[in-house]
Write a structure and sequence with these properties.
Elements lengths: L3 E3 L2 E4 L4 E6 L9 E7 L6 E6 L6 E3 L7 E6 L4 E6 L8 E8 L12 E2 L3 E6 L1
Parallel strand pairs: 2-11
Antiparallel strand pairs: 1-3, 3-8, 4-5, 4-9, 5-6, 7-8, 9-10, 9-11
Length: about 120
């Protein structure tokens, strides 16, 4: 199963990007979805996650009030709207899909995309 991300790029401080993730290979509604970020020398960390049906969401503290996660189960698409971007938001963003009772998909036993690079220049 391959998740496909898009929407990354180079943006200036204060700018916006919208990431998308999709696949036709999963029964999308059954999965908890999340966006994770990896930077050199650090573990991949959860940035934002959304539960099945979209009722519950999680945001890492540094992105609260700036990022918004959403899912469209009719088109099998996950979104991350990023606004007021800062240099520390730079990294490779991965989407993940997992089956779990938690809000975020686990690092193990989840499906992952190939990642999309986000670079915020100052």
């Amino acid at each position: 199963v391959q998740l496909v991300e898009s929407g990354g790029g180079l943006v200036q401080v204060g700018g916006s990007l919208r990431l998308s993730c999709t696949t036709s290979e999963l029964r999308w509604r059954a999965y908890v979805m999340g966006w994770f970020r990896q930077t050199p020398g650090k573990e991949r960390e959860a940035v934002s996650c959304i539960s099945k049906g979209g009722r519950d969401t999680y945001y890492e503290d540094s992105v609260k009030e700036r990022f918004a996660i959403s899912r469209d189960d009719t088109t099998n698409t996950l979104y991350l709207q990023m606004t007021d971007l800062k240099p520390e938001d730079t990294g490779i963003y991965y989407c993940a899909a997992g089956i779990t009772s938690r809000t975020c998909p686990p690092r193990d036993n989840s499906y992952w995309g190939q990642g999309t690079q986000v670079t915020v220049s100052s």
